[in-house]
Amino acid sequence: MAEDQVDGMGMSRPRDATYGVDVMELRKIMEHHKHEGYDYVQEKHGGVQELCKQLYTSPNEGISGSPVDLEDRRKVFGSNVIPPKPPKTFLQLVWEAIQDVTLIVLIVAALISLGLSFYPQSESEGGESESEAGWIEGVAILGAVVVVVLVTAFNDYQKEKQFRGLQSKIEHEHQFSVIRGGQDKNIPVGEIVVGDIAQVKYGDLLPADGLIIQSNDLKVDESSLTGESDHVKKGEKTDPMMFSGTHVMEGSGKMLVTAVGVNSQTGIIFALLGASNEDGEKERKKDKKDKNRLKGEEGNGVLSNDAETKVDIENIHPVVTGNNAHNNSNANNKVPEEGGEEGEEKVPKPKVESARKEKSVLQGKLTKLAIQIGYGGTAVAVLVVLILIVKFSVTKFGIEGESWTAEKTPKYIETFVFYFIIGVTVLVVAVPEGLPLAVTLALAYSVRKMMDDNNLVRHLDACETMGNATAICSDKTGTLTTNRMTVVQSYMGGAHYKSTPNFKALAPTIQELLVRSIAINSGYTSRVIPDKDGEGLPQQLGNKTECALLGFVLDLGQKYHTVRDEVPEEALYKVYTFNSVRKSMSTVISMKFGFRLFTKGASEIVLKKCNYILDCDGKPKPFTVEDQEKIVKNVIEPMAGDGLRTICVAYKDYHTDASTKTEDSEEVMKDNHDWEDEDSVVQNLTCILITGIQDPVRDEVPASIKQCQSAGITVRMVTGDNVNTARSIATKCGILTPNENFLVLDGKEFNKRIRDANGEVSQELLDKIWPDLRVLARSSPQDKYTLVKGIIDSKLSTSREVVAVTGDGTNDGPALKKADVGFAMGISGTDVAKEASDIILTDDNFTSIVKAVMWGRNVYDSIAKFLQFQLTVNCVAVMVAFFGACIINDSPLKAIQMLWVNLIMDTLASLALATELPSMELLKRKPYGRTKALISRTMTKNILGHSIYQLIVIFVLLFEGNNLFEIDDGKYAKIHAPPSQHFTIIFNTFVMMTLFNEVNARKIHGQRNILEGLKRNPVFIGIWTGTFVAQIILVQFGGTVFSTKALTLDQWFWCVFLGVSTLLWGQIITTVPTAVIPKKICWWRRKSSAEEPEMEEELEEEVDGMPGRRGQILWIRGLARLQTQIRVVNAFQMDFDTSQLDSYDKRSRPSVISLQSLQSAQHKPAVSKRPNLASSPEVDENNSRGPWFARQDSIPYADE
Q1: Exposure of 739 by Cβ count < 10 A (0-12 exposed, 13-18 middle, 19+ buried)?
Q2: Is residue 212 exposed (0-12), middle (13-18) or buried (19+ Cβ within 10 Å)?
Q3: pTM value surpassing 0.85
Q4: Catalytic residue among 475, 820, 890, 1180
Q5: How far apart are CA 40 and CA 237, in angstroms?
Q6: What is the rounded CA–CA span in Å between residue 367 and residue 1038?
Q7: What digits encode the pLDDT tens for the residues 903-957?
Q8: pLDDT tens-digit map of 620-651
Q9: Bias category Basic and acidic residues: which stretches (predicted)?
């Protein structure tokens, strides 16, 4: 590179030259704001164009993009990544796993038991074998704890590794458009370097800091940095500063990248936060002594791979001075808000309410179930210990008349410790230990598989929530249709063409205006390029509607790019970019006589602004209201009836000199002409042509919608197209069917029907509309949000609606956030829409949503299967331990045996039952909905039925087993007595019944064929077989460690026979009608809707108020483990704390970390030192937040 390379190749720094500006100067430039930034660049560097030269880049051609040049720029200015926070080491995960309260209790009890076994005893106190065996139980329990801790840590380690990989994939999906070597290229944001010319457009999330070179109607949301909710208007001379982490809400433009990674404004903030980490660590150690803080208020940091290595978000209190108008609602994206006054200072709220809102449907149900089981388990455990101690004391000191002496103290204490261990073990068994792992495995497995089905899951709870979906509000374009648009009909010069017209036959004026209006009044990033092989259809890049129009120009035999070369983007005088309010786009260019305005947009909207229309000679003629109605009736409605999107193209000439005016349609500009007043500029237009654009329905969509309908899911189309087009497409898709009285409304009629006399949305009026509504046309993002919120809030249906929504535009953010599951389009979706979503459809296809429903239901069913299996095991084990303690002063199932059943088998069972593949059968039943109990009456019947069978078998063996098998009686044995065949048979039979019941648990809806689909799950077969083999080894060779004695072949046969009988018993249970199970017996069933909010709040207070209530901590253990596992799943996003419930909705993007992520990561109980930004959880969400910068109301049951 001996010299600069410019022509067609971009620029690079010569080897012997240095950049004209260094990193620190670039950082200093970006510290200025608004007009100050422009003045500073002009004064110090001579403007942006000169700064480009100093950075060896071309405003039009960009940098060369050669590997040498890119590496050079990364070396000098840094790369666009912030070093990731290192993952937790295996030892750290081990330490976190061992924090479990119940495990600690077990360890303490085992150590006491171990210590007492070495205490010297007299010969009269016990035989030699007892003394030798005394230490074995303590060591065995410690060994079991070590296994549990290692398994938990290994699972955590694996999940963190997997989901960091998932985060990496999400990062790779985020690309940005830059100009390199004169060519537009989409590159991963991590590859952007200083000097790149980035092309920014509506919906982009900015990946780096930069200066505007050229802009069109550019507006940016900077609330993530400043707290200002109003959009900031950008311009080359007004405010050229662009910051990473902010969102482009309107317009387009080009910017010179000046700072990346740690040198960008967001990166600098992270670096500053990292520097304060050391002080924060000391502070945290002090804070640990403060027990007055609600655990729910201790925030967890959200870090993507961009996070500074040493950042600890918990201890950061950034101070931002200045006025933060975080209470101002966004004028352009207003969402219904209630309460609060502007400017009112917000007081930090306790995290209890927030945590409750962040639970998904399944998490809420599991929380409730775990708490209820915990109550029962605690009661039984305490009863067992009390009964054993009281019976021992009464027998020893009352009946036998012994006295407590110093010599016998160790013996008595050891007995009490033994009883305590039995009680703790009952508690261990009472809580579904394997449930958290089942949840984790089911979600992790589903997420991996869903990626193959074009569903990129961003928030894990969306998996199972989707399984409960009762309604889908879908976009039309790209989701139900192919999003490959072509112009198939047109109307111009008074003629309606059903095919491509002969260009030469058109009037010269129409020829010129048609080509120039389409070429100029479209985004210059929209292009149609030939297929690489030259055989397929041309490739459409950019906006598909604009590509259809550009393709129409090419079909006419013209070249749009020659016009663009003649009028480059920099030469455009004024651009009014398309948005959902305008539903049109306008561009002003300079002409010799003055200015010419081109407009295109929705036909009925643009036609209303037309006072003239070109006739067959290309002359403007008056266009009356009657003429408009005639064209609507004869042209637009027939086009729309064919399912075509109708676009009108128009123009207007503005003359600076009245003498040059030749037509009535032209207008002479006033001296004080205001180009910012769009309404006065875009009026009195002349219509050039009307096009009918075809976007065919995807072939597979009608079948997918039929599947949804048979699965009990209502599909609604919400589109910006006109009513006739929407109705036609909806009919082709199967959303509308003949002889059905469904509603098809446009946005105007919809608002008219749902608003009361005061203009407010009425839920009562909305409830009359939405059940029958199938198509909402010409809808605004506000209409979409109102519909989604209305359906979610409605109490018309007993099970409450669970709503999924698709969206692709920036303004779809509120609806995507409000929905229970938000789907963003991976291809056509903007970065803002993807940020607001839960799942990204990588192929923009409705069929992928149906697959998400299947996987969601599969997750839900997998967990329900495991619950059915687990609760049967727990119920039997607890009852056996309880009655054993009452009757024989001992548990027939020893502590170490129950740990084997509970911690080893259940872990394996969770893996086996969580890896079932979904089948089409899942789509043949109705969704569960929000309020249906997690454990159905059928499952209740199975749990009770199998529990009764197993208890009968175990108690028969306990009291008559020694006689039936002609072996020694194992009852009333002393502590540390050698294991007996009697109790070994009981243990082995229990395990056999549990193993075969695992096969029964594969079906939860009363199916008879329990082996159906078993071949498709080799994991289940492998684990089941492995567990069976392990049980044989354990029984035959476990000895004193596992309290087992080898069994004979005959005894093994009876154990297996009793186990296999479980399968036969299952068929008998299936025959019993579910209706015989009284509803009252299902104590875990949900209460009435009216009681839900209060109940949920009470539960949360109980969960979050754990400090100082050790009894509750014991029984809440299962829930705590569930939270830990879910946090592991989200480990790629957050630094988790094992003691509290995390937010499931922290979001981040690669290379771009919005400051809002930092703000939302902190929840301090005292007055916060940080600002109440618009994204802060401390700010009341109804007043202060932009509608999609905080997850709204994903509360599963409570009224919103």
Answers
A1: exposed
A2: buried
A3: no
A4: 475
A5: 11
A6: 37
A7: 666 667 777 777 778 888 888 888 876 667 777 788 888 889 999 999 999 999 9
A8: 999 999 999 999 999 999 998 888 889 999 99
A9: 279-298, 345-356
